[in-house]
Amino acid sequence: MSPIDIGLISVVAIVALIYLGVYIPIALGVVSFVSIWLMRDNYDLAINLIKIAVSDSVMEYTFATVPLFTFMGLIVSKAGLGHDVYEVMSSGFRRVKGGIGMATVGANAVFAAVTGSSIASASVFSKVSVPQMMHYGYNPRFAVGVVAGSSVLGMIIPPSAMLIIYSFVAEQSVGDMFLAGVVPGLLLAAAYICAIWFMGRFTPNFVGGRPSTDYEMLPWRDILSKLGPTAGLIAVVLGGIYTGWLTPVEAGATGALVALGIAFVRRSMTLRTFWEALLETGHITAAILFLITAASIYSRMLGLAGLPNELGEMLRSSEASFFQIMFIYVLLMLFLGTLLDTSSIILIVVPLFLPLIEPMGLSLVWFGIVTVVGAEIGLLTPPLGISCFVIKATLNDDRIQLKDVFLGALPFAGVMLFIQILLIAFPSLSLAILN
């Protein structure tokens, strides 16, 4: 077999293994190792490429952003800041049809800016928001759909683990990726709120509920006390990166320290929860480290096979336009989103398309935002919509079935696709802060 044939078979094998339940880094690493061995008929070369992949990926200084931002997000979650933000947002939207849903989106957007995790957002707001909406007579399907849809904001609003993974795969600045995610993330949050207003106006039965008139407007002192810690943490992290005073690694360390200080001042952190946060940080960091190493081996295997160049030559010979190429790319991500999780999609498709995008003179930072938003849609689509599974498991309510979560999230997946098209048509939306 030719290297191209081996490369094609390896990509199919990786997707199949992941779908069958094989741990993602294992599937990427083992298949890539065997493919390199077969292509070059050299076992020592395959071993040496693994050594190079380790040294060139996770040994980089910028990899320190992973444990630091992960630790910060866990501390913030345990400190109860998500509940405070939700209280303020609920107070502001209390008299609007679908207002609690809008409050959930707003609170998720703020919470995402200090956690960077869609799983944490889905878990927190399943407990806080869904019972509140059901108390006020909202359609359970709408209630869980809002939480599922808005939870994915944690993947695009910095600090985001997916943006960090992409930055390593594409060799881009973590700081640039964080700044590029701000406008698209806020745009997606605003689109969600507009969609909820539209549904409340034109499909009131799907939304259900009644205005929560028994909510009292919070005094300004309470609003400041509840939002102050979160706003300060966002200002320290993103403000430090934007002004250039802090590198992403330094911003992560500073944010983790500030978050720890907030937790101890609020007395929401015990030695036990602190130790649990440290252990969970280690587990998440090790998993991402393994992912990045396996992705580096996979990229080298694709390069040896010449598969990206072959794909590029095929598209160039077909004289495909920019929008046709992006249509194929988004379609591929949407298809894989029904089978794989977000990180798997990024690790598989980005190395294939990067050699095609770079010669076109397109920004790889913009391409990263488009990739993450496209892959995020998979969090809401069956059969492997991870956010939907987390919500169902967290609620443990027999009145809400898994299909209700998926159907409730469907309109929000449509909104995400609309924003994806806007980001492709207007790259300046992603690069506004960087320019």
TrEMBL record:
Annotated membrane topology: Multi-pass membrane protein
Gene Ontology cellular-component annotations: plasma membrane
Location, primary (coarse class): membrane
Keyword set includes Disulfide bond: no
Chain ranges passing through the membrane: 6-38, 58-80, 100-121, 142-166, 178-202, 223-242, 277-301, 321-354, 366-392, 412-434
GO molecular function: transmembrane transporter activity
Quaternary structure and interacting proteins, as annotated: The complex comprises the extracytoplasmic solute receptor protein and the two transmembrane proteins.
Family: Belongs to the TRAP transporter large permease family.
Stated name of the protein: TRAP transporter large permease protein
Organism: Cohaesibacter celericrescens
Lineage: Bacteria, Pseudomonadati, Pseudomonadota, Alphaproteobacteria, Hyphomicrobiales
